[in-house]
Amino acid sequence: MARNDRKGVTIVDIAREAGVSIKTVSRVINREEGAGAEVRARVQAIIDKHDYRPNASARNLSSRRSYLIGVIFLRLVSHHYVGEVQAGALRAARRAGYQLVVEQVEAADGRFDLEAFAAVLANVAFDGVVLTPPLCDDQDVLAAVEAAGVAYVRMAPNTEPGRAPFVWMDDLEAAREQTLGLWDMGHRRIAFVGGPSDHRAAVQRREGYLQAMRERGVAVPAEWIAPGDFFGLSGFYAGEALLALDPRPTAIFAGNDEMALGVLAAAAKHGVAVPEALSVVGFDNAPAGEMSWPRLTTVHQPTAEMAEAAVEMLVKRFGDARFREQITEQKLDYRLVVRGSAAPPRG
Amino acid sequence: MARNDRKGVTIVDIAREAGVSIKTVSRVINREEGAGAEVRARVQAIIDKHDYRPNASARNLSSRRSYLIGVIFLRLVSHHYVGEVQAGALRAARRAGYQLVVEQVEAADGRFDLEAFAAVLANVAFDGVVLTPPLCDDQDVLAAVEAAGVAYVRMAPNTEPGRAPFVWMDDLEAAREQTLGLWDMGHRRIAFVGGPSDHRAAVQRREGYLQAMRERGVAVPAEWIAPGDFFGLSGFYAGEALLALDPRPTAIFAGNDEMALGVLAAAAKHGVAVPEALSVVGFDNAPAGEMSWPRLTTVHQPTAEMAEAAVEMLVKRFGDARFREQITEQKLDYRLVVRGSAAPPRG
DNA sequence: CTGAAAGCGCTTACAG
DNA sequence: CTGAAAGCGCTTACAG
Fold it and tell me: What is the pTM of this model?
């Protein structure tokens, strides 16, 4: 059997060598009050000398905590999103002394495998979990977490903002700003490629585009808005349709980067030079947008930072009850990423 | 404090209600031998009735195990790779009753932050870890894991195959097959875009290309092989250089998908229709290759399956010592992914 | 500021 | 096939 004996040094050994009780050693380890400076230094020296590390299982058993935070994904979510969330969550978890456990919930026929999820919740004894979209909007998932009595924070929830703490960013405002950026370059015929209508971010981005155009006194013709589904191919077809318009738009704002890359492909196919004859901008700051030619101007969505904030909120909720209900929402900032795919219109 | 009380039902409660000792309940929980069928059924019924779940911390403390498997990444690795590895590792870990803990090692100036890594190893008490490239080839990382006495499996190691169990795939053979596929379509002038020379997969793929051409009796001119660095932009420049050759290659095999997308962009820029006037194929089956136009013909690298196999090997090593040293290597199969970017040459 | 006692909920090692 | 005892290594709750 694989054992974790390592050193075999325990709190008892440290206490004996220091000539104090294990309680005092415990105080030193956990930076608790109630230990004299001299005693503290002596104990710490012995801890350092033996490179002693407290046994996590023993600590967890007696304190009735696991120091485990779960990050729960739907299996279908993009790896890029998963990677960003983890990187951010890991930073915050490590700072607070928590471990990050990854879990995925399967979906079939649009329904989640709740039984498997409930089993995970029951087995792992998370101190808290972060629910990512779209799980964070599913009534059954929320009910399961609440029934298990596990603290949770939601990332970019679509519904019931009052139900639990959450983190989010302002997609509408970012899309508005992105659109105004094109306007300020001199573009007037700015088209838009939308995303799925049941996706909160897609709707918000479209709304931001429309709001910006309205502010500039432009009534957007229906044909300037092409439908898409957030996948690249839909952007390609949307691009072809928009390029066939007369007069042709001088700029196309795609609701996410994957579709923007599709628009880029359509432009290349039809010999429309980007950004000389057409500006194309996206949203998300996906890595593929850095590999395209020209490189994609986009909006950076602070996914990692949102996950980091979510874990921080979780950890704070574990603390003093008096402060527990204070932090219920946190808004993160986006950032415009200017690269080569947008430029002032020629002629 | 966030407690994991949940039910409050313990092994003692179950034992009392069943009229047996806690040891017998333990036998039923762990499917150990030495419990009569009738007793077993009675105990199980009471467990089910209360939805009793053993306390992981207590089990871990007394058995001196953590049931935690770490997957260790270099922070710089692509999210796509991270996502694939996790999906596979999670499958195997869940089957075996282990939890997956994600860890990242920082790198600065080409050196790893070993101190942080050692701290993680000391604090988490992993039963085992999976080392991903390039960490799996770093002497200091290997030494740290071995010093901590933690079992480990390496993914696609470049050096010292005898040092520890590992999983891998045959990049050379896959590249050879990919090249022969172009040949069989009728292509004769097949160019190649290479990757970084210190990267094992890059070298193997180039070797597979050369071997296939050699088998077909073609002496590859030096200008048919363009240098690249696995990033998209290098593929773009390589594509421009190869398209300027006279006679022009009818097919370009890029050492990975990102570079293949760069070649695609170069072809679009120069008005070279793909696949009519030029076939382009890649390697890896990265998601961006599905969004391109045309969609990229490539080789699927079984990253998730490799991670799954790695965790399985780890779990088996925890078992009976007599079988422990048996599994030291496992080779996974690649798969050719035929999409739209390659076709027989015209004319 | 410090410590003795009890206990967290299991598994191990042993006895019958 | 079954169980009583000891113990895993900490924290909690309390006393001084």
Answer: 0.82
